[in-house]
Automatic annotation (TrEMBL):
Residues 8-91 form the Gamma-butyrobetaine hydroxylase-like N-terminal domain. Signal peptide: none annotated. It comes from Vitreoscilla massiliensis. Transmembrane segments: none annotated. Pfam families: GBBH-like_N. Keywords: Iron, Metal-binding. Gene3D superfamilies: 3.30.2020.30. This is DUF971 domain-containing protein. InterPro entries: GBBH-like_N, GBBH-like_N_sf.
Length: 117
């Protein structure tokens, strides 16, 4: 069963998206959402084609748009707006944030890259 948030709020700083579910609440950082965008630009067009996102520490969410009854389109301050975060993917990101964030930091370190622009 797909978890659909009962409330979605963007904080005033535009750096945290709050998702309220019936049984839990999550606060997801804009940088985390940006580097795990479901877009082809980030994910590539197949396994092993993912593109490491660097320099996204200061990114903000400047728009949140509902897409039908199945997803959100997030518009980021760096101009990225092509990923559709369906409810299942958003819930997965929320539940696995700690592990995914550590994986991202490890990939940055391995690439000699930075979160800063």
């Amino acid at each position: 069963m797909t978890q659909i948030p009962v409330a979605i709020r963007l904080d005033k700083s535009k750096t945290v998206l709050h998702l309220d579910y019936e049984q839990a609440q999550f606060s997801l950082n804009a940088e985390y959402l940006r580097v795990y965008s479901p877009s082809a630009e980030v994910r590539g067009h197949g396994v092993g084609q993912e593109v490491l996102q660097v320099g996204k520490r200061a990114v903000r969410i400047i728009g949140v748009e509902a897409v039908g009854n199945y997803a959100l389109k997030l518009v980021f301050s760096d101009g990225h707006d092509s990923g559709l975060y369906d409810w299942a993917y958003l819930h997965e990101l929320a539940q696995t944030e700690a592990d995914k964030w550590q994986q991202y930091l490890q990939r940055l370190t391995a690439a000699g890259a930075s979160r800063d622009a």
